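# nightly structure sweep
# worker-07 picked up a monomer target from the shared queue
# config: single-sequence mode, recycle default, output format = structure tokens
# input follows
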Amino acid sequence: MKTEVGYCQMPDGTAFMANHLKMPNVTAEMLHWWFAWHGLESMRYVIWNKDDHYDVVVKNGTEAQLKDQSIPMAERIYGVSHTVTEDTGFGPEKIDINFKNPVDLGYDPQLLAQSGSDIVAAANGETALMLHVVRPVDGGIELRSRFWLGWNVDLQTHEPVRVIPDDAKIDGEVAKRLGLHNIKEMTNLAQILPSLYAENKDKF
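# output follows
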């Protein structure tokens, strides 16, 4: 069964969340820029979702990489880690997000090219695997966000790895609230990104 928007708790105790959103007047290029740009100042993270985003810190001294014009915009976040402070439904908390080259997470670049899709962000989080993928549509793009809660991908084997204890369970309410948070932040981003990009695309 194909799930575009929704959430569930899986039989093994992990959980899953999916979102699908059309973003008029937005391009994949804009989103690649956004993911490289927004982590460099906390205020940039706050305007993404002023109610639920509080702070972002780029870890591992990779600020220079995000500004390096010799690196293609789509690749600047590869290997960069953010520690964000945000509220995904249970109060503010710090979350580590480790952005990766999608190929290192097992995605096939040839299949992606054939599909006409573009992965703008793929990451292993502390307790979740995150994916944001876009595809052009008339007048803009459509964004598909997916979160596999309780899982990461092993960078050596490209196999999924459970990152919560075997006897642990992630309540479906966690996935539900994350989904609502994702809808809110991405809907707002769709509204502000075209003008933000036009005004700041050359300002890092």
